[in-house]
Specification:
The complex is a heterodimer. Chain A has 8 helices and 12 strands. Chain A is of the alpha+beta class. In chain A, the strands form 5 sheets. Chain A has a 4-stranded mixed β-sheet with strand order 10-1-12-11, with helices on one face. The chains are: A alpha+beta, B alpha/beta.
Chain lengths: 246, 771
């Protein structure tokens, strides 16, 4: 099975924010929200020296996506096709789901009821509920699968001025992402408490990855506190949807 | 109808989902050819591509605009460009938000309130242009042509500069870009090496370097895409990085050796390094012997400048200084001595510091070789007479351009002297200012003097895109078109990856805005000149392209850009410099002829008075000077600046990260409130903030009063004695929290060589500077 993944090389990253803006432009993300961000850390002392580095973040398209498990929308069957082999597979999916062949975590906007459960569940804050819409929907990074289909790169990768973002299929042994991850040099933003298999990896100087983990590895199992939407919430969502349609 | 729209939306959402079934084998199938405006695809897919050139900063990367239904939806790098390919920086990506900024100047306006109040009435273009032309004529008739002064920057300013020049003023170019920024560095390299190694661009081959030296160059915080790209390629290839900076900057975070130098002592470090490599034979003897003049003068001048002499001055460890210079020397000649860019730090000694960098590069033989300083590749294009207005101004008996600083006229009239002349009438009255592409109140030291000068003018006008502080102070405001709405000239790039390209409009001009060419032409016509009268600037572009064997059509077919072959390096036997001797001048006779030091000398700049720290400043990667603070996307990324304060100093003062403070400088001028960033990454004797924030124009609704402006606490400056640039790092601040004025503790003992700045009683130190 394929798994799309990204490695971000903090040694190359200069913290310029081009990735965040290219994403905003590509997907017309309202300024109150983001799919893609750059946070700054330091200068701060670490056991490996003074560090001044960055956290370029996006959805991790996790192996065990908690956003998917909390989605209250009734599963519906859907048939997916393996882009490599053409093999088909039918599975039942919620409104948000992990693509069985690419590993991208995606949202079926036609079925999303805008309850915000997935937004609350994500320990990385990678999702938002777009309340600028009459019928609010959850939204987040798609690894630009729409662009991949058209033969394009993800917007953030295409604009990255130092080629710090390396994107590819982790299952493809010839891919750069596979090579870096297999070398053991890349780290994931995980902790003892939160270890759900993020597929965005980071490499860099020891001081920088140290500071990144210390500052931004999540510890709160947020998905455990998500309350399922009430019947009323679901009805209200249906009403909103109808209203915006009329 | 609405219902159908809903169904259609659902259908497109399904289409997007269907698209998830990645067809074919690879993820990276060749990109589908642009279909020229298919709008049913998501994002920017299917948009029409229009190649052009960015102007979110002066680096001017080639771009393509993605247009759907006549609306610009995205900007990417032009894939044909060998310099940046598909990459654009944060600002380049956000150009759309300049184009569609609701705060944009939409039509010509006339001031109705007091200057600076920002009260305006809408007028017609005819009325606005008549008014400007009438006032220009009136001032020339009454005071002569030199009473006109033009402050210019960027592509929009070029045509109007021609109008001022044709009217005969010696003050037709007065670029803050030189007198507030790169001037001293540009002069130093022109005089030593015969070409402008650092001007708009820096000809330094970091990509092929084995070691790189950055002296307070913050690559990554200031972002010019091809420059950053080559820097990173160099580091990727294993180049060692030495960073000299009082602050732990973004490149310091990547450095092999970081030297947290005491501000104002860089030249002492460079002299000590020269001494070290000369004494230890670590220089390129062949290169120095055959391609340089003046070596003995340099050797004599640095004789006493040992590492041990410099260490206490620079507040660095001698062993670190040695380790750094040995690292650089080991890489010779493939060592990139970055020539620097913003050089107007301390006034006295700025040109010398960059001359010292030129000498260091020369001693390493790091000129004309891969990994060193290199030569520009001339790019052929025709020169269109129509891009000029003619005229060569006469020099007046008392000249602003020539009389104060021997080398100022290479760059224009020093801004500080224009402001002085406008305030005082000395050496002659300046009565009218035209301003184009530069926000002078957030650019030039002592904005209080600038405002005083404006109040004494007969007339002031500007061409602007946004209602900046400068627009607020103008009598007439002419709304310009952005770079996304107009043609400009042909652009050539002469660095490692040369090319020729053009800027062309992606969308029609918004509102009543007009292109710079049209505005200059209309003004010229009203002043009785026949320049800039082509119906369309396209004709000029075609004429210039002809010289390169191209037409707009043929260029468009090639993707809007043609890459060219580079010629940056020379065999040693072919090395020839455009200097009097044909060799690099390590000692510059032209300086000696003007009673200036022919070789660099360390001139200490006054250290902070007790209780104060030196104010230094820099850039954030998402903003260009003060130009982009109102851009909604960029504003959102980095809405306000912070004041970096050393953690030890902060702890002694009882201040913590995030505290809001106000700065008060040596002249009692206060800043807007700013939040503290407490960090070990800055020396205790300096504080730092990003430049460009603290906007004072209410009409810039997003940027207004966000963060603090460095410029409004930079009131004291000294002029570079060589070319008259105004210094920016000669101001000292202390911190006010609430009502409490706090002294910054003195944690960096001074050696006897370094005098302290003397405060005047009650903080009434003389503002402004001068020779």
């Amino acid at each position: 099975m394929s798994q799309l993944a990204m490695v971000i090389d903090l040694k190359r990253c200069v913290g310029c924010h081009a990735c965040a803006l290219a994403c905003r432009a590509e997907w017309s993300i309202p300024v109150d929200y983001h799919r893609n961000w750059v946070y700054r850390m330091g200068p701060e002392k670490t056991p490996h020296g003074l560090s001044y580095t960055f956290y370029p973040g996006l959805c991790n398209h996790c192996d065990d996506p908690k956003c998917v498990s909390v989605c209250p929308v009734d599963p519906e069957e859907r048939t997916f096709k393996d882009p490599k082999t053409g093999k088909k597979k039918t599975i039942a999916i919620h409104a948000t789901f992990k693509h069985p062949f690419t590993g991208a975590v995606l949202i079926d906007k036609t079925r999303c009821i805008g309850c915000g459960s997935c937004v609350e569940a994500c320990p990385y804050g990678a999702r938002y509920l777009n309340e600028e819409l009459d019928d609010p929907k959850a939204d987040k990074c798609t690894f630009c699968v729409e662009r991949l289909e058209a033969g394009e790169q993800p917007a953030c990768v295409k604009t990255c001025i130092t080629r710090a973002r390396i994107f590819g299929d982790l299952s493809d042994k010839s891919s750069e992402v596979h090579k870096i991850v297999a070398s053991g040099k890349a780290i994931r933003l995980t902790s003892k408490e939160v270890n759900i298999g993020p597929n965005v990896y980071y490499t860099g100087l020891k001081k920088d990855t140290h500071l990144l983990i210390k500052t931004y590895a999540p510890h709160e199992r947020k998905w455990e506190n998500v309350k399922a939407p009430t019947r009323r919430d679901i009805i209200m969502a249906a009403v909103r949807r109808l209203k915006s349609a009329v | 109808m609405k219902r159908r729209r809903f169904l259609k939306l659902s259908a497109s959402a399904c289409a997007a989902l269907a698209a998830l079934e990645l067809k074919g084998t690879g993820m990276f199938r060749p990109a589908a050819a642009s279909t020229g405006g298919s709008t049913d695809l998501p994002g920017s897919l299917g948009a029409k591509d229009i190649p052009s050139v960015c102007e979110m900063c002066f680096w001017r990367c080639p771009i393509v605009g993605k247009v759907k239904n006549g609306k610009l939806v995205k900007i990417e790098g032009n894939p044909k460009s060998p310099a940046n390919d598909t990459r654009v920086c944060a600002r380049g990506n956000s150009g759309i938000q300049l184009l569609y900024d609701p705060d944009r100047l939409k039509y010509p306006m006339k001031r109705t309130g007091k200057r600076g109040e920002g009260k305006w009435a809408r007028i017609s273009w005819d009325e606005a242009l008549d008014e400007v032309a009438h006032n220009m004529k009136k001032v020339v008739d009454k005071h002569g042509p030199h009473a006109l002064a033009y402050f210019d920057h960027g592509a929009s300013a070029e045509f109007m500069r021609g109008v001022f020049k044709a009217l005969g003023t010696e003050n037709y170019t007065n670029e803050p870009a030189f007198f507030q920024c790169v001037g001293p560095a540009a002069l130093a390299f022109i005089k030593s090496m015969g070409y402008i190694t650092s001007g708009t661009r820096q000809y330094v081959d970091m990509k092929n370097a084995k070691a790189i030296l950055l002296v307070a160059s913050h690559i990554g915080e200031n972002v010019h895409v091809s420059h950053v790209k080559e820097y990173m390629e160099g580091l990727d290839n294993g180049a060692k990085l030495v960073v000299v900076d009082p602050r732990f900057s973004a490149p310091a975070g990547k450095a092999d050796i970081y030297l947290p130098i005491r501000p104002g002592t860089d030249t002492a470090l460079l002299l000590a390094w020269m001494n070290f490599i000369i004494e230890n034979g670590l220089y390129d003897k062949d290169f120095v012997k055959n391609h340089c003049t003046g070596f003995d003068d340099v050797k004599a001048a640095v004789k006493k400048c040992t590492i041990e002499w410099a260490a206490p001055i620079c507040d660095l460890k001698a062993e670190d200084m040695k380790r750094a210079i040995i690292t650089l020397a080991d890489a010779r000649p493939h060592v990139a001595i970055h020539p620097g860019r913003h050089a107007t730090w301390y006034g006295k000694g700025d040109t010398s510091r960059h001359q010292a960098l030129a000498i260091l590069a020369s001693l390493f033989g790091a000129v004309g070789v891969p990994g060193g300083l290199y030569f520009p590749t001339p790019v052929k294009k025709a020169h269109s007479e129509c891009a000029e207005c003619g005229g060569e101004p006469e020099t007046p008996d008392k000249s602003i351009q020539e009389d104060y600083y021997p080398f100022a006229s290479m760059f224009g009239s020093p801004t500080s002297k224009i402001i002085k002349a406008s305030r005082t009438g000395d050496p002659y009255p300046v009565k009218l200012w035209g301003i184009n592409g530069v926000n002078i109140l957030q650019t030039i030291p002592n904005p209080y003097h600038t405002m005083e000068a404006i109040n004494k003018l007969d007339f002031i006008f500007c061409e602007e895109i946004l209602p900046t502080e400068t627009a607020m102070w103008s009598d007439i405001v002419l709304p310009g078109a952005t770079y996304l709405e107009r043609f400009d000239a042909v652009y050539t790039y002469d660095l490692l990856t040369p090319y020729i390209t053009v800027r062309q409009p992606m969308v029609k001009s918004m509102f009543e805005t007009r292109s710079s060419y049209w505005i200059a032409g209309q003004l010229a016509k009203r002043l009785g000149m026949d320049c800039f009268q082509r119906k369309n600037i396209k004709e000029i572009v075609e004429e210039e392209l002809q010289g390169a064997g191209l037409t707009l059509e043929s260029l468009d077919k090639k993707g809007g850009l043609v890459p060219l072959k580079a010629n940056p390096y020379r065999e040693r036997k072919d090395l020839k410099f455009n200097t009097d001797s044909g060799k690099i001048a390590l000692s510059v006779e032209d300086y000696a002829d003007e009673d200036l030091d022919p070789v660099p000398k360390f001139i200490p700049t006054p250290a902070p008075p007790k209780g104060f720290a030196r104010l230094i400043y820099g850039r954030v990667p998402v903003h260009t000077f003060s130009r982009t603070m109102n851009n909604s996307w960029l504003h959102n990324e980095w809405p306000e600046n912070e004041l970096w304060l050393n953690d030890e100093a902060a702890s002694k003062m009882g201040l913590k990260d995030g505290d809001e403070v106000v700065l008060e400088n040596q002249d009692g001028k206060k800043s807007l409130p700013i939040k503290l960033k407490v960090t070990p990454g800055i020396r205790p004797d300096v504080v730092y903030m990003a430049h460009g924030y603290g906007c004072r124009s209410k009409m810039l609704t997003k940027a207004f009063e966000k963060g603090a402006s460095d410029q409004f606490v930079i009131t004291r400056y000294e002029n570079d004695p060589f070319m008259g640039a105004s210094s920016h790092r000669t101001n000292f601040v202390r911190i006010i929290k609430g009502t409490k004025v706090m002294d910054i503790p003195d944690l960096c003992p001074l050696p006897p060589q370094l005098p302290r700045f003397q405060l005047k009683k009650g903080h009434t130190a003389k503002t402004g500077g001068g020779k």
